[in-house]
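Continued from yesterday's entry.
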Amino acid sequence: MNSSKNAGASHERRLRSRQHQDDQPGHESLMRPRPRFMPEGRPGDRLLGRSALITGGDSGIGRAVAAAFALQGADVAIGYYDEHEDAWETHGVVESMGRRCELVKGDIRDPEFCCELVDRAVDRFGRLDILVNNAAVQFPQESIRDICPEQLRETFETNIFSMFYLCSAALEHLRRAESGSIINTTSVTAYRGSEGLVDYASTKGAIVAFTRSLALQLVEDGIRVNAVAPGPIWTPLIPATFDADKVSRFGSSVPMGRAGEPAEVAGAYVYLASDDASYMTGQVLHVNGGEIVNG
């Protein structure tokens, strides 16, 4: 009886309503159902007294990480593009947990904005302990011939160039932190590829190499550099990328048979940011619904 009920619940979670958004990176306020981002469990102190900067922290995985960090005692600065409603909702969530939140709007493809983003976080909190490079875009194309130079530049500048800019801008502040941590969001597509997202998957592969290389460079500085490689997670990027039919089936092909929720990924970021991961650098955690990637 219980097994049947659980199977039914799993099936219900597998399906999404048909929906599409025209603009990237998408608006969480328009999604149905809304992603689950609130962390479960009681407030803790795994990140107490620390401050974090999260790109794309207004929604999706970034919002869930912001909430999870705040629950563990961290102040949070959020870089976002133009999703004001989503950003202010996340701001309210962080402050409802008794932590400070700084919102900074702008384009992370601009190196000067990346410097401003870091400066705003440090000015507000007096320190920077954790940098989460999370923001990304993706534009499906059936053929490599359809990936125009403009799309290629936007994808690489947003997804990987920005990480160089932000890590460089944050470096001196992270060196002064008691336990500096950089966490990059890569993807399962870095390991298994994606025929319809060739440029996106290429940036995610670059992020894996970037993470491993920067970890070696910064180990003597006491800065740990790790990554998380999510599988199919229900975020605004999904209805902003795919047509309504694909959205309705999103995530159903993984072994667990459903898309993951942002809240189900956020714990990996908390672990990597905390002292629990003090002996871990240059590594990637795979939160992907059971897909074996041997990465």
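--- second protein ---
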Amino acid sequence: MNTKNILKVIIAIPLILFYSCELDNYTAPDSAIHGGIYDEITGELIQQDIINGAQIEYIEHGYDNPEIQYLRFKPDGTFRNNLMFANTYTITPVRGNFVPIDSRTVDITGSTSIDFRVQPYIRINNVKIENKEGKIVATFNIEQTVTDRVHKIGLYGHLQPSVGEPMRSVYKESVLNAAVDEATLYHLEIDIATNSANLTPGQEYYFRVGARIDIGEAKFNYAPAVRIKI
């Protein structure tokens, strides 16, 4: 390498370091958003799926072509993002197990709490799940809040409390495709012996009852998970 080329390399190295430092010299996220999605009538958190559950879309103001960002709800219906920039955002819960609601414009600074009050498509009431005579037996009532048909009901079991239709080791489902009567007592059961490959004696599992309305991208509505020893 001749002297001229060596000088070019020596000059280029500090320039690269300078520009790298300049590019990385941005303010870090300094705010957080947290809250939950609640049944507007009962005041209870609306249970969600951990996989492909409801999401929150949020758009940060101040950009010509802002990118839509997403945040998922936890199985208990709460959410949190600790890596937000202080700014104004348009926030919308979407693709969930509730009647769609309007977007909200929110100023986020520091730790900001935001709760959503919505109408769930289905409420699952009077749930009883027990280990009875070699079976996991669930009984419950269904209250649908819209006129669309209830597509399917299910009982799901897994080692994790986030059990649900997409995360299950054992399950029992029934396709209804019908409107339901709140007074009807539904019954689902999982035979332990038949599912011995996935249910270990002496082990505790979580079981959760769910139901899905027959609407587009609607997700399952759930009752809280129950822990049962096999």
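The first helix runs from residue 3 to 24. The domain at 31-118 is CATH 2.60.40.1120 (Immunoglobulin-like). Will compare against the first tomorrow.
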